[in-house]
Structures are given as C-alpha cells and as structure tokens.
Amino acid sequence: MPRLFLGLELPASVKAQLLRVAGETSGLEGARWQSAGQLHLTLVFLGEVADARLPEVVTSLEGLSLPMFDLDVCSLGCFGSASAPHNLWAGIEPEEPLAALHHELRTRLEGIGFAFESRRFRPHITLARFHRRRGSVEALLGNWRGSEFGAFPAEAVSLFQSKLRPDGSEYSVIERFPLNRPVRGEEG
C-alpha cells in the first residue's frame, strides 16, 4: 500500500534558499537534513492507502473551490525545545489561506471515510529531523531570525507518494489538483 499525503510543491528558487541553512550549519549534532527533493509543505497526511482506493481519493479532490494565493517562506522555528529539537522548520505566511485549504481537503477526504487526528494544523516546511542525540538550534534560530527564503504562488495541491528509504523518504507526485485562478478585477 502506498503512503500518501497532500501538499504544495516548492519552486527551485525557494528550495535553494532553504538549503542555505544546512549549508551554513556545520556539525549540528543529530540533524538529518532534508534534500531538495524532500522539501515540500504538507497539507494533509493520509498514511497507507490501498491501491483500490486511489481513484476514489483522486475523484474526491477534483474541482477544488479555493482560489490561488501567494505564500512567503520566512523565519525558522522548531518543534520541541530549541536546546533539544525534534524538527527544524521554515515558517509560511499567511497561514489563513493554508488553513482554509487544509480544512477543505480534510472535509473532502472525511466524506469518503478517512479519519484524521484532531491536532491543530501548523503549516511549515521541514528542514531537518533530529534523532536521539540532539544539538541545540538556539544559535541557529537567532542567526536566521527575520530571514526570508522567497515567495511562491500556491497554484495546485499535489498528491504525493512517500517511499521510505534508508537515507530518508523519497517523494513522487501522483496527481496535481489546480486551485481556481482569480477572476479579473479580484486580484489582491
């Protein structure tokens, strides 16, 4: 059964800026940095889905009713304490259109029988994961405070498949679901 999730793909220019963080951080204990091919923004994690359900998932996501929007990738943060983090991430602004998109995707998938955790959606791009021995990211967070990593338009939601590999997950896009283009005269 494939492991699936919905997310946003990032342009190469934003990925290059995010990879600077790893490139300028040598010897951070316990960090397993994400590669360019692993950088994305997760919207909804589906988990393992039977192959027979894939057409139903695709059909449920067709015709998304939300408009396209622009996002800024800025700031760094972590899950866990800065002295012993679990994940290092880049933040996204604004969060409101992402929360609305997350809600619509979950609602559509719940309509075909998927169940999800009730924890709050916190949009982010994972840059590094930490295991067992963890180095502090306090200085790193301070050094990158106020940094901007680029902007991009959210034009489509991608259905990703995740394959677990010894060197980290490998992601491939199965399908893309476009968001609506703004009607002329309604742009920002």
UniProtKB/TrEMBL annotation:
<feature type="domain" description="Phosphoesterase HXTX">
    <location>
        <begin position="94"/>
        <end position="166"/>
    </location>
</feature>
<comment type="similarity">
    <text>Belongs to the 2H phosphoesterase superfamily. ThpR family.</text>
</comment>
<feature type="active site" description="Proton donor">
    <location>
        <position position="40"/>
    </location>
</feature>
<comment type="function">
    <text>Hydrolyzes RNA 2',3'-cyclic phosphodiester to an RNA 2'-phosphomonoester.</text>
</comment>
<keyword id="KW-0378">Hydrolase</keyword>
<feature type="active site" description="Proton acceptor">
    <location>
        <position position="124"/>
    </location>
</feature>
<dbReference type="GO" id="GO:0008664">
    <property type="term" value="F:RNA 2',3'-cyclic 3'-phosphodiesterase activity"/>
</dbReference>
<dbReference type="InterPro" id="IPR009097">
    <property type="entry name" value="Cyclic_Pdiesterase"/>
</dbReference>
<dbReference type="Pfam" id="PF02834">
    <property type="entry name" value="LigT_PEase"/>
</dbReference>
<protein>
    <recommendedName>
        <fullName>RNA 2',3'-cyclic phosphodiesterase</fullName>
        <ecNumber>3.1.4.58</ecNumber>
    </recommendedName>
</protein>
<feature type="short sequence motif" description="HXTX 2">
    <location>
        <begin position="124"/>
        <end position="127"/>
    </location>
</feature>
<dbReference type="GO" id="GO:0004113">
    <property type="term" value="F:2',3'-cyclic-nucleotide 3'-phosphodiesterase activity"/>
</dbReference>
<dbReference type="InterPro" id="IPR004175">
    <property type="entry name" value="RNA_CPDase"/>
</dbReference>
<dbReference type="InterPro" id="IPR014051">
    <property type="entry name" value="Phosphoesterase_HXTX"/>
</dbReference>
<feature type="short sequence motif" description="HXTX 1">
    <location>
        <begin position="40"/>
        <end position="43"/>
    </location>
</feature>
<feature type="domain" description="Phosphoesterase HXTX">
    <location>
        <begin position="8"/>
        <end position="89"/>
    </location>
</feature>
